[in-house]
Amino acid sequence: MIEGNPNGGLTFCIAALIVSLTSIFCAIVIRKKKSLKNTLLLALLSIVLFDSCTGIASYTAYNYDFPYAVKFFVCYLSKYIYYATHFLMMPVLLYYIIVVCGILHLFSKRFRVAFAIPMVVLETVLFSNPMTQLAFTAQSDLVFHRGPVVYAAYILSAFYFILCVLLLVRYWKSINHLKKGAMVYFLSLAIMGVIIQMLFPTITCELLCESIGLMGIMIILEKDDDRVDSGTGLYNRMALLQDIKNYIDLNRSFRTICVRIENADAYINITGYADFDSIIKQISKYLFDVADKYDVYISGAACFYILCLDENESESNKLAYAIRDRFDRGWLLDDNQMNINALIMCAGTPDMFGSEEDILMLSEAHIEDTGKNLLIDHDLDFLLRKIEVEKAIVRGMNENYFKVKYRPIFDKSGNKVCGAEALLNLDDAVLGVISFSEFMGVAEKSGFAEEIENRMIGSILRFTGELLEENPDCINFIMVHTVSDKVISKELVGVVREYAKQYNVDLSKIALDINDNVLYVETDSVDYVIERLSEDGVRIFMGNYKNDSMGVRYDMLSGFNGVIVNIKHFMETTGGSKRGIILKNRMDMLRQINKTVVVSGVDSFEYYDKMKDIYADYILGDYLSPAVSKIEFVEIAKAGRV
Q: Greatest CA separation found in the chain?
């Protein structure tokens, strides 16, 4: 609201009223659940809306032929209400930013009260304005002048704003830098309107700038389509990974409930995709409703997560029991009840799980059937084996228990050896042979993944250099796996180049397999690795291209020379009688976009026989040849066949 003559700002107030009212409507429509974040944003918009109404009332009273007493009363009351509400905007905005950044738990109640005390003092002085005249004064011609309290409020608001920006930049990790920049822009727009009106009282743009700024914030924060699964309306896997990482980085305690549908593929075979999808949507709606205070996520086709923030153990356990009881009653399918076998797991962070990898293991770890469909806290102690595996990794690095074996890669006929897949093995002196997936899951958490990758690359390139020095044309390439997404960094390029130079290796004879998970992670490092190693001649393959990777857009494959498809995994995890046709069509489409196709998992004659109908450039698997030592592979490469 303006200082000085109240005439002339009606247009600004009406515009601010329209913008804020529209923003309130949109914020209510697009919100999924009632939350503190949404409530605070609505409070900010409501303040702007209310202040716009006071401005319109003041301008109307001033310009119409009302008795002087009525004019004075309406204008004075409007100014009084305006300041009483507008002083609250910056504290509410600071509270909003704290909630958005997820750091409310870092501020004790005493600390929050301390932040609010200055504004409480200002509000108290404002309420005494009819007697003290410290906030504003009114002349007989309805011209209002600011008092020292208003300027103190401006200074305090600037302090709050600086805190907002610092918290936003320091703690908000769930959105990219572009959105952070947009947030700062819209906040600055609102503050700019305040500064302009403070310096030039006749330019009454404060409310309009604030309403536009809040609308921009509402669009950025409340509309999160990129985090939502389109089929169920729940948050997707990307959102789950982001939120878990943020909570752990911010040292927030939370409990995780994982609802994992066992044997989902069997249900698909029984009911078909459409009916199973209908059941998944029923389950999604139930979890969304029953966990009304928490965020619910879907990870994969049939696994759900609920993150219970800052809750005690009894509340989350009670919810887990309720979910278990609901699954015991079955789900409606075409007027019939269908029982769905679900495993519900519940545990806390950081009490039991200390990383996102541990939490995601709940959806992937093999769990023996014990007759229980609800596992809480110490029921999950089997995961403690990871500790022993970590010790085995340290022994393996210190005592050279890690060995690289080579599985021959054949042309499609299976008659000619064209290359090899390098496989890392750990045969521990205490635990014996440990599977790759098990020891790498621990290595990622423990920080050993990069060191293991570097050592493996050195061993492979040393062997490749020796092999090619004796017979340069004996193989087309050797496939090197990235053991973890975490090793894909700019340093990886330097490691490959250094070893290639040291062992005189032509990098066109090297292929790098990058897991398909990187397609869902927008990082500069991934793009850098692909671009730089491609320039050096390294062939880049997208590995782990399985049934749930089939939804990958083909434009996302532009940086890859080809893909690796595990036929065994695809056939075993894809339901329906037409899975062979689906796989054939996918391979034909990959051929049409000029991608080299390597089919792995050819572990039996059944899968080998299927290859005659499926496009592939190279094949490999235990049926053709198991992984062998480097000495054995040299003999195979020289002979050109097994």
A: 108
Tokens of 190: 């609102």
Residues 6+ apart with CB under 8 A from 330: 337, 338, 339, 340
For 142, 287, 362, the CA distances from 311, given in Å and listed in that order, are 54, 17, 20
Start-to-end Cα distance in the chain: 86
d(CA 485, CA 515): 7
pLDDT, averaged in runs of 10, over the chain (642 residues): 50 83 84 79 87 84 78 82 82 85 81 82 80 75 76 82 80 64 75 77 74 77 77 88 86 90 80 85 92 89 88 86 90 80 89 80 75 86 74 87 91 85 90 85 81 91 89 87 82 91 91 77 75 90 63 66 86 72 84 89 88 88 90 84 66
Q: How far is CA 608 from CA 428, 585, 603, in A?
A: 33, 18, 8
pLDDT given at position 406:
93
Total Cβ atoms within 10 A of residue 145: 13
**Residue ranges per domain, the chain?**
10-223, 226-372, 387-639
Query: Cα separations (Å) of 219 from 166, 179, 191, 214?
Result: 21, 11, 18, 9
* Contact (Cβ atoms closer than 8 angstroms) between residue 319 and residue 369: no
Task: List, in sequence order, every beta strand (DSSP E) within 497-566.
Answer: 510-515, 539-545, 562-566
Whole-structure pTM value: 0.56
Omega before 350 within 30 of 0, i.e. cis: yes
Q: How many CA atoms lie within 13 Å of 604's alpha carbon, on the beta-carbon side? A: 6
| Domain 226-372 classification at class level | alpha beta
Of the candidates 157, 160, 158, 179, the residue with the CA atom closest to the CA atom of residue 169? 179
State residue 76's pLDDT score: 80
Alpha helices in 272-344, H assignment, sequence order: 273-290, 313-328
**Cα–Cα distance list, 36 to 92, 179, 310, 538 (Å):** 11, 21, 14, 50
**For the domain 10-223, what is the CATH superfamily, name and number?**
Rhodopsin 7-helix transmembrane proteins (1.20.1070.10)
Q: What share of the chain is helix, strand, coil (3-state, %, to 5)?
A: 60, 15, 25
Of the candidate CATH numbers 3.30.230.80, 3.30.479.10, 3.40.50.150, 3.20.20.450, the domain formed by 387-639 belongs to 3.20.20.450
* H or E element in which residue 295 lies: strand 295-298
> What secondary structure letter does DSSP report for 615?
-
Q: Which amino acid type is present at position 383?
A: L
